[in-house]
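Hi D.,

Good news: the full-assembly prediction came through. Inputs first.
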Amino acid sequence: MDREVAIIGGSMTKFGQRDAWIRELLSQAGEACLEDAGVEPDDVDHVYVSNMASGEFEGQGGIMNAVAHDLGLLPAYSQRIDQTSSSGGAGMYAAWQSIKSGASDMTLLVGGEKMTHKGTGDATDIIASITHPAEYKHGVTLPSFAGMTARHYLEKFDAPRESLAKVAVKNHENGTRNPKAQFQKEITEKKALESPIIADPLRLYDFCPITDGSAALMFCPVEVAEEYADDYAVVSGIGGATDTHVVHERDDPTTMGGVVDSGEEAYEMAGIGPDDIDVAELHDMFTILEFLQMEGLDFAETGEAWKHVEEGRTAIDGDRPINTSGGLKSKGHPLGASGVAQGYEIYEQLVGEAGERQVDAETGLACNVGGFGNCVITTIMEAR
Amino acid sequence: MSMDAIRCPNGHVKYPTHPRCPECGEEPVETIDLSDRTGEVVTWTESTATPPGVREPNVLAFVEFEVDGTPVRALGQIADNADVETGDEVEPVYADELREPGVGLKPADADQEWDGYRFRLSQ
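Then the structure:
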């Protein structure tokens, strides 16, 4: 069965420090998505719930069952999707597969995470538990990998430290235009460069915060989409790839193989190239990751992404805006929600519902990175 | 205690060990102990926000060894959080507890070693 896969609605909760626990966050986004798409609960065939660690964070399992039950979706097929920080992107992949294959005619994807009730140390440990035991025993954290990679990038390509701060400044500025973002305040380059060191040479403002939140998207075949919406988006390309579990085993610390491989797959499926992408959401869990993804997706030559940022080309009024939503940096990063929220931002840009963040875009891309590039999903969407 | 890497029939050298060579899928044919060799710091960081049971700060580095002309890298703590720079020559030094067992998410008896090798500047 060769069907085109459409996205006809979406939603996200406010990201930030929330009182709601995981079940409530997921059902808030799911309910809002049903309403936005104009879909009745009875019409949902499959529901996928992207989440990394509800068990570790709050001792709650079975959340796909909870969402299906709480939203009246029974007896829909339900599944929880965990691919660490790229659980949301993996959910996009699963939802796309369910429609593409003909297994489902209406699929709800909800991603969410509840994190802020844990202290930074405990949350960092839950996230660091994805590492290989040979890494974990040294007390490595994801921010430490970012620090080592950033140093290597700056030394290898003679890039200025300030260029990383400019990524944070840009994404914070975009966040001021997003009422759902965790942070809605601009920062200065000076403030970023003088913030406390977290993993030298990276400082506090090079990192995304710990966040509670949820986001959702509704998928169906294009023929069905025509019944529900005048404007919608299609998933024209999607690719997923896995890199080494042990980060130091990669040939080049500044190349994320999963980004390159998933990007190539998505470009090939969509039949387009990097020059055709009008707007992109990249996984800026750390500022350095925005450079690595720009280069891995061929938006910039190797070692030159920092120049694009310095020249303002990735700003909201630049030739290819990146992270109009504020990115993970400013919008926040509730692990399982992030890939879905990236897709939601691209969807809103394509259907013209991005409000103050609206750019002129027909084609958009989202790159969702799990671990430190360990698993990556790249999705290309086009306006219809 | 040793710091074991594997070599496969195609000459790939990988640390830590895997049941199959991550590069070509062949079964390893040899174990190589890196603990008595010297390596070079590829990059490093000083982490100031560490998880429960981990020393704070925690200086970490990627170190590259060479085994018969083939590079192989390892991640490790820098002993005594000493000042290091990219390009420094370092050597492994055994530590019986790299982080406190059982304090973080993983139980003390998990699939997890707690001892291993730090790196110190070559003497």
